[in-house]
C-alpha cells in the first residue's frame, strides 16, 4: 500500500475507537526474553526418537483471540478489546519419550480472519497491525509441553505449560503459554494464554485521538481440541 493510501486509511480509523469491551481476563504467561526453550526434560529440535503420538486439531471447536486493555476518551472505565478467529489448523507430534517434535508440530492461524465488534478495528488489525496481505498467517511452533506425559490420561484434567515459537508479521519470538488440558478417550481439549508487549513482537502500539490509553500488553488466547491420529 503506498503512503497516500495508508494515510487515507488511517484518517478513517481516527473517527472510531480502535478497541472495545469484551469478556474477562484469562490466566496468562508472559513471553520469555530468552531464545532457548530446551531443558533436560524438555523437547529437542534434534530429537532422533520416532513419532509415537500425533494429535490433530479437529475442524470445529478451536479459536484464537487477542485481548488488549484500553480506555476511551470520555469513558471512566477501561475495557478489553477482543478479536477472535476460528480459522486454525495444525498438529502436534510427540516422540517415544514424551517430547515434542518441533519439525512436525505447528499451528497456523489465518491472520485476516480476526473479527471483533467493530469493523474498522478489524481493518486496522488486519491491514496495519498484522499486514495480513503480506503475512497471511500467524504460526505457533511448540517446543516443549510441561504438565503431561505419555501415556496420555484417558480422563480428568491437568495444568499445562507450553513453550513455543510465535511468528507474527515475519517476526519469530519465544513465548510461554499456561492453561489447562482435559482428557477423554482419544481427545485432548483445553485452553492456554500468553502475553507480551507490542515491542516484543516489533508491533507498533496504537495511538489515535479517540483513545485515552492503550495498554502496552497484548494477550493471546487459544481454545483447542485435538484428536489422536490413527
Explain this structure to me?
The chain has 230 residues and is mostly beta strands. It has a single domain, classed as Lipocalin, CATH 2.40.128.110. It is built from two helices and eleven strands. The chain has helices spanning 3-13, 119-129; strands at 29-30, 51-57, 63-72, 79-85, 88-95, 106-110, 137-146, 157-168, 171-184, 187-197, 211-228. The chain has an eight-stranded antiparallel beta barrel with strand order 2-5-6-7-8-9-10-11. Strand 3 and strand 4 (79-85) form a beta hairpin. The longest helix has 11 residues, at 3-13. It is elongated, with a radius of gyration of 19 Å. Residues 1-26, 33-48, 73-77 and 209-213 have low confidence and may be disordered.
Descriptive key words:
Lipocalin, eight-stranded antiparallel beta barrel, 2 helices, 45% strand, elongated, disordered N terminus
Give the topology:
Layout lengths: L2 H11 L15 E2 L20 E7 L5 E10 L6 E7 L2 E8 L10 E5 L8 H11 L7 E10 L10 E12 L2 E14 L2 E11 L13 E18 L2
Parallel strand pairs: 1-10
Antiparallel strand pairs: 2-5, 2-11, 3-4, 3-11, 5-6, 6-7, 7-8, 8-9, 9-10, 10-11
The top level CATH class name: Mainly Beta
What would you say the CATH architecture is? Beta Barrel
Run of helices and strands: HEEEEEEHEEEEE
Q: Characterize the main sheet.
A: 8 strands, antiparallel, barrel
* Distance linking N and C termini: 46 Å
Stretches with pLDDT under 50, minimum 5 residues: 1-26, 33-48, 73-77, 209-213
Query: Hey, roughly how much beta strand do the residues contain?
Result: over 45%
The domain count comes to 1
Q: Briefly note the CATH topology name.
A: Lipocalin
State the fourth-level CATH superfamily.
Lipid/polyisoprenoid-binding, YceI-like
* Strand order in the largest sheet: 2-5-6-7-8-9-10-11
How many distinct helices?
Answer: 2
Which outline best applies? elongated
Content-based structural category: mainly beta
> What Rg do the Cα atoms give?
19 Å
Count of individual beta strands: 11
Helix proportion range:
under 10%
Quote the average pLDDT: 80
Amino acid at each position: 500500500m503506498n503512503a497516500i493510501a495508508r494515510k487515507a486509511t488511517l484518517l478513517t480509523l481516527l473517527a472510531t475507537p480502535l478497541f472495545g469491551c469484551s469478556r474477562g481476563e484469562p490466566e496468562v504467561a508472559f513471553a520469555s526474553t530468552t531464545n532457548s526453550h530446551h531443558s533436560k526434560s524438555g523437547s529437542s529440535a534434534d530429537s532422533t526418537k520416532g513419532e509415537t503420538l500425533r494429535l490433530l486439531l479437529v475442524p470445529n471447536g478451536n479459536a484464537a483471540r487477542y485481548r488488549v486493555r484500553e480506555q476511551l476518551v470520555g469513558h471512566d472505565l477501561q475495557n478489553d478489546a477482543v478479536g477472535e478467529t476460528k480459522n486454525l489448523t495444525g498438529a502436534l507430534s510427540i516422540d517415544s519419550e514424551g517430547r515434542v517434535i518441533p519439525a512436525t508440530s505447528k499451528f497456523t492461524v489465518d491472520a485476516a480472519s480476526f473479527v471483533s465488534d467493530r469493523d474498522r478495528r478489524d481493518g486496522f488489525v488486519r491491514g496495519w497491525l498484522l499486514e495480513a496481505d503480506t503475512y497471511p498467517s500467524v504460526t505457533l511452533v511448540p517446543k516443549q509441553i510441561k504438565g503431561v506425559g505419555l501415556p496420555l490420561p484417558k480422563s480428568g484434567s491437568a495444568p499445562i505449560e507450553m513453550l513455543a515459537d510465535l511468528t507474527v508479521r515475519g517476526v519469530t519470538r519465544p513465548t510461554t503459554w499456561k492453561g489447562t488440558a482435559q482428557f477423554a478417550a482419544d481427545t485432548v481439549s483445553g485452553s492456554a494464554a500468553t502475553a507480551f508487549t507490542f515491542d516484543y513482537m516489533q508491533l507498533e502500539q496504537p495511538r489515535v485521538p479517540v483513545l485515552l490509553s492503550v495498554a502496552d500488553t497484548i494477550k493471546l488466547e487459544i481454545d483447542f481440541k485435538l484428536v489422536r491420529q490413527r
